[in-house]
Amino acid sequence: MSKPLxxxxxxxxxxxxxxxxLSQGAHPIDLESQDLDVPEIQGTTxxxxxxxxxxxxxxxGGPCLxxxxxxxxxxxxxLPGPYIKHFMQTIGHEGLNTLLDGFSTRxxxxxxxxxxxxxxxxxxxxxxxxxxxTIVPARGPKVFGWDAVFQPAGFDQTYAEMDSVEKNQISxxxxxxxxxxxxxxxxxxxx
Length: 191
Ligand SMILES: O=c1[nH]c(=O)c2ncn([C@@H]3O[C@H](COP(=O)(O)OP(=O)(O)OP(=O)(O)O)[C@@H](O)[C@H]3O)c2[nH]1
Ligand SMILES: [Mg+2]
Fold this sequence. Notes:
This is Maf/Ham1. This protein is an alpha+beta fold. The protein has helices at residues 12-22, 45-60, 84-98, 164-170, 172-187, and strands at residues 5-8, 31-34, 64-73, 80-81, 107-117, 125-135, 150-152. The chain has a 5-stranded antiparallel beta sheet. Helix 4 (164-170) packs across helix 5 (172-187). The longest helix has 16 residues, at 45-60.
């Protein structure tokens, strides 16, 4: 390869290890690094939610709304959090339970984050709703995400066992939507 390959990273330790390995062998790879600010969806629920909304606004080319849902374990200081989708797809309902084996608490909270952007380049506004509960062996229909393993505090049913009206009244999403609705309605003018 004539031109050096650009490794986009701001991490000097990564660069050192990658350079060391790629410079070995019959065809050493010539690397250069550039510390560029590229989207990397990792961080707090708020950071992930805002990044999603910014990207969506660019694609939509105007005002838009996004929503990101997190499932946060007390024992894991809030993880899996915004990464719950990948956890759910990989380890399923059973894995979401066994993940907590050996910990002293199975408490969790579900967190919904709506993000509204007025358009590309404008900072998203966040509306959050949180419901505390416990992770339990799956009960009820397994039609929506991790509904079957989340039992809200003060109830003896999982989200999956509740009817949708009851769930919406107490859910993370229901609480976030109440705030979002107030905001959106306050934006409406009579003109
Ligand atoms: O049991 C559940 N009760 C809920 O109330 C709920 N809300 C979302 N989810 C799941 O949690 C992950 C979030 O990921 P997520 O926010 O990125 O959503 P998504 O990728 O499905 O949609 P979107 O990103 O296109 O809006 C996904 O696996 C969703 O299926 C829920 N599961
Ligand atoms: Mg998603």
